[in-house]
Amino acid sequence: MNPTVSRVLKLAAKATAAAGMFGLLAANSAHAQSSVQLYGQVDEWVGATKFPGSANAWNVGGGGMSTSYWGLKGSEDLGGGYKAVFALESFFRAQNGEYGRFQGDTFFARNSYVGIESPYGTFTAGRLTTQLFVSTILFNPFVDSYTFSPMVYHVFLGQSTFPTYTTDQGVVGDSGWNNAVQYTTPDFNGLSGSAMYALGDQAGENGAKKYSVQFLYFHGPFAATGVYQYVNFSETPGDLPTFEPGYVSQSVGQLGASYDMKYVKFFAQYMYTHNDIQPGSFHVNTGQGGVTIPLGTGTVMASYAYSRSNGGLDQTHKSWAIGYDYPLSKRTDVYAAYLNDKYNSISSGDTFGVGIRAKF
């Protein structure tokens, strides 16, 4: 064989072997790919708040449209469609620089979990956002606003208002559960489901269990959800309010739907809450309807919520809100909103203000 040709063939063989080795290393590197992301939002508003039965107070507050928080999340590709995932998310109050939504809040109260994503679904464990909270915020025009959303007031700002004013309506417990595990199915043409279970996690607290199941469906302009949540607690459960003596268990069922017609988007929710107490029991029916309407570059939001209990304090609760959100950019928006809140046995309250929200 010609020496020149022989040398060319040897060099080609070495190049082929090197290319194969590089490809193998690249494949192994792809399996080991990982990422970590910093993200969050800062939301501040200026206005006045008058709780039912209370006096008016002017304030600079946090979380007008969304609660301020920051978070770290990451994933590592394990190969074969599997990923290790984690998230650490902390609320904060920009108006005074303190962490948490309130004094004494857990540092990573929004989410704190680790898990595995796979082609067969996702498993996570830690402190997890409840499925009831997810359904509540996705199907009302004011989303997760603890300042202006009527539905958030009726679901999450009932039991926790003591001693400002007294009501036995609303959900006992937080929007996140400690000591929880969750499984979420893959997406099947817009349909997904999830199940969550949480324990008291202390000796003698095995009865303090919590569980929920949920479905979510998104298809074109239509979306829907259904969630069932059960909480059974002992005398002193760690992440439930201590001012609810006599409560044995609480069951909550909620349905929600929305339909986007481009020029208007409709929202509707219904929730049934059953409380077992010592002695007896009572239930609360809650409904919410609302719309968002594009106006100029921004969006008009309007919502009305109604709750009625058949026992306990025997209360009727009515709330309505209207607001306007205007985007200054893809990450920053300004807003103005008004909320009226009324219990039949207490003088009405209202909240109004303007704010700015910046995401990062």
Overview of the structural elements:
It is built from 3 helices and 18 strands. Mean pLDDT is 87; it is low at 2-31 and 236-240. The chain has a domain at 41-71 and 130-180 and 205-359: Porin (Beta Barrel), CATH 2.40.160. The chain has helices at 3-31, 131-138, 150-156, and strands spanning 34-50, 57-62, 69-79, 82-93, 98-99, 111-118, 121-129, 176-184, 191-198, 210-219, 222-232, 247-260, 265-277, 281-295, 298-309, 316-327, 332-343, 349-359. The longest helix is centred in the N-terminal third of the chain and has 29 residues, at 3-31. It has 360 residues and is mostly beta strands. It is 12% helix and 53% strand. A 16-stranded antiparallel β-barrel has the order 1-3-4-6-7-8-9-10-11-12-13-14-15-16-17-18.
Q: Give the class-level CATH name of the domain at 41-71 and 130-180 and 205-359.
A: Mainly Beta
| Total beta strands | 18
Helix-strand category: mainly beta
Strand order of the largest sheet: 1-3-4-6-7-8-9-10-11-12-13-14-15-16-17-18
Helix-strand string: HEEEEEEEHHEEEEEEEEEEE
In whole angstroms, how far apart are the ends?
A: 66 Å
Largest sheet: 16 strands, antiparallel, barrel
If you compute it from the alpha carbons, what radius of gyration comes out, rounded to the nearest whole angstrom? Answer: 25 Å
Secondary structure: helix percent: 10-25%
Strand percent estimate: over 45%
Chain-averaged pLDDT: 87
Looking at the structure, the CATH topology of the domain at 41-71 and 130-180 and 205-359 is Porin
Q: Architecture of the domain at 41-71 and 130-180 and 205-359, CATH level 2?
A: Beta Barrel
| Anisotropy-based shape | globular
How large is the count of helical segments? 3
